[in-house]
Amino acid sequence: MAVGMASSPATAKDGPAKPDISNEIIVTAQKREERLKDVPVPVSAIGGNALLAVNQTRAQDFFSSMPGVNLQFVNNRAQLAIRGITTGPATGNPAVGFTIDDVPYGSSTGQGGLFGAAPDIDPSELARIEVLRGPQGTLYGASSIGGLVKYVTVAPDTRGFSGNVGGGINMVNYGGQSLGYNARAALNIPMSEDTAIRASVFTRRDAGYIDNIRTGRDNVNSSNVTGGRLSALWKPSSSFSLRLSALYQVRDLHGSPSVDSRTGAPFQQTDQIGAGPSHSEVQMYNATIKARLGEVDLTSVTAFSRNSNSDRIDFTASPLTAAVFPLVYPAASDFGHVMMTGYSVDKVSHETRLSGTLAQSFDWIAGGFYTREKANYTIDSAATNPLNGAIYGYPVVWRDSATYEEFAGFANITARLSERFDVQLGGRWSRNTQSMIHREWTMLAPDPAPAAHRETNPQASGNAFTFQVSPRFKPTPDHMIYGRVASGYRPGGPNAGCNTDPAEPVPCQFKPDRTINYELGAKGDLLNRALSYDISLFAIDWRDIQVTQVSALGTFTYNSNGGKARSRGFEISLEARPTDRLMAKMWWSYVDATLRQGFASAVLYAAPGDRLPYSSEHSGRFSLDYEAPLREGMKARLGLSATYVGDRKGEFVPSQAEAPLRQTYPGYVQFDINGGLSFGKWNVNAFVQNLTDKRGLIGGGYYNQTNFNRYWFNLIAPRTVGLSLDYSF
Fold first, then answer.
1. Per residue in 434-473, pLDDT tens?
2. Is beta strand 531-543 parallel, antiparallel or unpaired with respect to 26-27?
3. Beta carbons within 8 Å of 440's beta carbon, 6+ residues apart
C-alpha cells in the first residue's frame, strides 16, 4: 500500500518535494529493486524530501501518519505497533524490526533496553523509508513478527559534484518565545570516474512546551539532536561496487514529555527534581559489496553498531517505592524515586546473499546471516527528598549483562508459470543462543551491606523456521492480485529472576512467539493511470505471546508467555490525479487485534476478546497536494491533510478487579497544512502542524509501565508553525 503522504520521488534527494505517483516509487522490500506497484507485499514508502517539506523530522511525526501503524512512547523514545501486534511498549523482545541500509538496528532482545524503539534519523540523509506490514521473518529474520521498517540512505554519486544546505525555524504553541530550529548540509564529491564520497551534518533543536511546576522550569521537554554521516563509493566497473558508511548521532532530551492531569492545565508536569533528562548515542559502520559473478549477483553487508542510552525516570508511583524505601529509610516521611537506567548494545552483523535467474523462468535468492550482540543494562534507584531533590541513597541496584548470537540461512524462489502468473516460495532457518549474568542488590535495612542479593546466570537457545508463499496474478499489466501466507517470530530468552523466590516461582526461560499472516491484496491503476488503488485483507494468528510481569514487591520484572491473540482487518489506499497539478490521496485501516486466550497471574490480568494495547481499530488519512507554475523557473505548492487515529486501549492491568480501569485513549483528528515555493535552486517551505491544536493522547495513564503514574500522559505536540529554506547545487 502506498502511503498517502509520499509526495516526493523516493529515489531523488535534490529539488523540491512535489506530487509524485506513489506506485512508481522504487523499493527494495524483497531485497531487490522493484516498483511499489509490483511488490506482493503491503508496503508504504516515503521520500526524505517529503518529510522535510512538512517538518516531519522526528520518528514520532512521520510514523503516526502511516497505515496500520500505531505509535507508542516509552522513556522518551518512539515505538511502533504494526497491525496491532504488541502487548505494550516495554514488554518482551522487539516486535517490529528496523534496518538501515539492510543492517539490523538495535537489539534483538529486551535486555538491550531499546525495546524496539525506532531510529530517530534526520530525514535529510534519507532517500526513503519503507514500512512493510505483516510478518517478514523469511528475508529479515527475528523480531519482525508485526512488520519491518527500512531506512534507505542517500548513496554517493560518481556522476557529478552536488550538495545542499538548508535550515528552518519553528515555534510551538505553549512554548512561550522558545524557538525550535534545524540546520543541515551535505556534499557529494566525485573523486574520479569510479569513486565518490558524500558527507553530511545536521543539528536540530525541538522546542519544549511543557512546564514543570515542581522545579519551576519551563519548556523542560526541549531536545537537541546532532549527527553526521560519511559514505564512500568505489565502482570500478558495472559488475562491482564497494560502499563504506559511517553514521553518528547524539540526542539529548532535557526533560520528560509527560504531563500531569491533576494540575488542571494542558501542558504541566510534576516530575521529581533530577528526573526527566535522557541521553542517547548511535554509531553504525558498515561495508556493502555488490558484485556480478557471471549470471549470479552477490551482495555482502558487514556492520558494527553501538547504541547507548541513559534515562532518569520519575518512578515514584511504582510499587517499589512504597514497598522498599520506608524500610530502608524509616526516618524519612516522604519519598521521591528517580530511577536512573543505562543501556548499551554492541552489535556485529553480516549477511551474504546470492541471486539470479534460472532458465528465464525462476528468480532466486539465497543467503546466510550472522549476528552477535553484547548488551549491558543498569538500574540505580535513587530515593530522594521530594522538596529539594537530595538523595538519601540507592536502595535497589540492578546489573544485567546479556549476549545474543544468531545464525540463519534463507532462500526464496519466484516461479513464473506464465506471463501473468507467478508463485513465490521462501523459507528461513534460524538458531540463536542467549546467556545472561544478572545481579541485583536490594537494601531492606539501613545498613551499608545489601540485605538482599540475587545473582543468576540463566541461558536459553532455540531454533525457528519461517516461511512464505505468495502467488501473484496480473490480469492486465496495470492490475495485480496477490495472496500471501507468511510467518515471523521473535526469540524467547532467559529470565533474570528465575527460581529465586519459592513463593513466586519464575521460569528460567520464556518461549519464542510466532505469527502467521494470511493475506489477499490487489494493486493497480484505473482511468489511464489517473486513479491508483491498493487494497489488502489480512488475518494474523499470534501464539505464545510475550508479556512482562512485575514481581509482587515491584523489585524486578520478568517475561512470560500469555497464550494466543489474533489481528484481522483491511487496508485501502487510493490516489487520484485528476490533473497534472492536483493529487488527492487517502487511506483507511481497520485492525481488530484482540486476545484469543486470556491470562491471569498475581500481577497481570487480561480476558479473551480484550483489545491488544495501543491498537487503533480505525485510522485514516486524507491529503490534497496542488502545484502550479507561477512564471518561468518558479513553482508554488500547497498541501492539506487530515489524519484520524481511533481510540486505543492502554497496557494490561494487574487484576480482574482493575479491568474497568484499563486506560482508554480517545480518537482524534490532526489537521496539517504546508506550502512552498521553488525557484531555480532554492526551496522555501512553510507549515502548520496540528492546525486546530488538538490534544491527542498517545501514552500514559493507568498502570503504564513507563512510570506507573495513572495521572501522567503523553500527548501529541500542540500547534507548531515553521519555515524552512534550502539551496541545492
1. 988 878 777 776 655 566 666 777 888 889 999 999 999 9
2. unpaired
3. 396, 397, 398, 399, 452, 453, 454, 455, 496, 497, 555, 556
